[in-house]
Amino acid sequence: MNAKPHRPDEFSLRTLFRNSGRRRPFAYAPLLLPTLSLSAAENLSFDSSYQVYDEANGRIFVESWYYRGEMHLSDETSVRFQLLRDAISGASPTGALPGGTQPFLADVEDVRNGVLAALSQQFGDHRVELEFSRSKEQDYLSNGLSLSDKWELNQKNTTLSMGINYLDDEIVVFGIDNQTKKSYDLFFGLSQLLDKNTIFSANFTLGYSEGYLNDPYKAIQRTDIISVDDGAGGTIDFPTVNLYRENRPDSRLRGVLQLQGTRFFDAVQGVLDTTVRLSQDDYGVFSQSLQMEWRQGIGEKFEVTPYFRYYRQSAADFYHKTLDEVSLTNPAEYPSGSGPNYSADYRLSSLNSLSLGLKARYRLSDKFSLSAAYELYDMSGTGSHQAPAATYPTASIWTFGVTIEF
């Protein structure tokens, strides 16, 4: 059995594509976002980065290569693209309890390739963007389509955004025909320039997924009793531990509210960026996260950004450590999503995580800059519905990048 890695609060290709490139700096407050950006005078911007995600104790190891570019064809029209390649290896929890007779970890090896292309066009006060994304793994194919609009008001001090995302996924499940999953997201946003140094934004996303929502590589164990004839007219009972496929609901409704404030401080020439994110779904998972980063310029060419991110979530209503906790006669060999639902996936347990990181950027010239970042990521269980401690990962994340403008 292989088991694919995924952090519950981030580390998703589709999330990366959906969130990247959606915000642009206000012309009235360029110091709020000191990272490199395009203006109408620039024709092409390109950046490339290499990232290593390395979990402790020989767990998951991911090497990622990112390539992004944006070209302004005119003052009204621009195109951008992203390419991504992940090489994944290591081991991930199967859903069995550690120290038992069933394997706690399963080997992982896969390559994921992704591409995104977007066309953006200005119509008066509206900026409309059409976006297509596609990612492919050995056993997973995802195609996405997104349409968004940004409407600038109040002399460009206020921006309203809205849009829709659609994902059409195909999943290879060993033993049965390929399964499908469809996801729909509606998002609405408001960004307001409060003064020359302060921006506030609020975004709300309503998402719905349907189809095959199980992880085909996750299992849950149960202690079954086998009765054997003892040869004297009676029986002898032997307890055995077996693994069964998880059974999540075949639909999921979720809402996400994100609030963000960005403030430039003249006295120290630094920027404080704070983001609060709240999420609730009909799985019963309620999550909260807080991220804060401080962007500090040192001289004219160097910038450092220390940051932290705290995340916590409650467990899904159907999270169980074992099937012994569920009243069920015969678990289905290939569950369809109908009840009762159950999963031992630690990503659906009650947990929290903490990220501590430092980013640095050095501008060699007006057209060329280098960047590097390190993040320490640690996840742990909390409360009465947590998974065994050995399931939660600790990881180091290194990222190196280069940005070029023509």
Write the layout of secondary structure elements.
Elements: H1 13-19, E1 44-55, E2 61-72, E3 77-93, E4 105-123, E5 126-136, E6 140-153, E7 158-171, E8 179-195, E9 198-211, E10 219-229, E11 235-245, E12 251-265, E13 270-281, E14 286-298, E15 302-313, E16 351-363, E17 368-381, E18 394-405
Antiparallel strand pairs: 1-2, 1-18, 2-3, 3-4, 4-5, 5-6, 6-7, 7-8, 8-9, 9-12, 10-11, 12-13, 13-14, 14-15, 15-16, 16-17, 17-18
Please give the share of residues in helix.
under 10%
What is the class in the CATH system?
A: Mainly Beta
- Supply the number of structural domains: 1
Rg estimate, integer Å: 24 Å
Give the CA-CA distance, first to last residue. Answer: 48 Å
CATH topology: Porin
Structure description:
By secondary structure, the chain is mainly β. The protein has a single domain (13-25, 36-405), classed as monomeric porin ompg (Porin). The chain is built from one helix and 18 strands. Strands 1-2-3-4-5-6-7-8-9-12-13-14-15-16-17-18 form a 16-stranded antiparallel beta barrel. Strands 10-11 form a two-stranded antiparallel ribbon. The longest helix has 7 residues, at 13-19. It is elongated and about 90 Å long. The protein starts with 12 loop residues before the first helix and ends with a strand. Residues 5-41 have low confidence and may be disordered.
